[in-house]
Design brief:
By secondary structure, the chain is α+β, with helices and mostly antiparallel strands. 30% of the residues lie in helices and 30% in strands.
Length: 161
């Protein structure tokens, strides 16, 4: 598997990947995290333009996609019912989605992100059991609850060296 920055040419495949991820989430009892349209094409275009969108591929197959950057995340400034592991600079992962054609792509992406910075934060919906299980398997610690800009709560996780 290989990780590279997403290009605008990847957008049709990216939209299809996220549509499949939304279907999987609904099947797993998580219909609300991304609803029927998130992440939107506008958000994906913005991520690509900002240089924070990545894809994981093998050969010609797009296996996963995510947003990643090192730096702050405004919604992580306040955490309830817990605390972050540290206040050191950290990487942020959002919008991680993988195709079902190859197991392990999501894990590969998270391990790649962690290797870039050694201190990684991520959040997920309470109903997203597959993601929570993956995070725990990879050694992420549950840290508390953060709130998105719209006020929706998310479970916050962190892993550091």
């Amino acid at each position: 598997m290989n990780i590279r920055k997403t290009t605008r040419n990847d957008l049709p495949a990216l939209l299809a990947l996220y549509a499949g991820a939304r279907r999987f989430m609904r099947e797993q009892g998580n219909p609300n995290q991304w609803g029927d349209a998130r992440p939107s094409e506008a958000i994906l275009r913005a991520d690509i333009g900002a240089g924070v969108s990545y894809v994981c591929e093998q050969g010609d197959a797009l296996l996963a996609a995510f947003s990643f950057w090192v730096g702050g995340e405004p919604t992580y400034a306040r955490i309830e019912n817990g605390a972050w592991l540290n206040d050191a600079p950290y990487g942020v992962v959002h919008r991680l989605a993988s195709a079902r054609q190859m197991r392990g792509a999501g894990q590969f992406c998270l391990e790649w992100c962690f290797a870039q910075c050694g201190n990684l934060r991520i959040d997920t919906h309470t109903d997203n059991q597959p993601m929570q299980n993956l995070l725990r398997k990879l050694g992420f610690a549950y840290c508390g609850v953060i709130y998105l800009e719209d006020g929706a709560p998310r479970l916050a996780f962190q892993k550091n060296v």
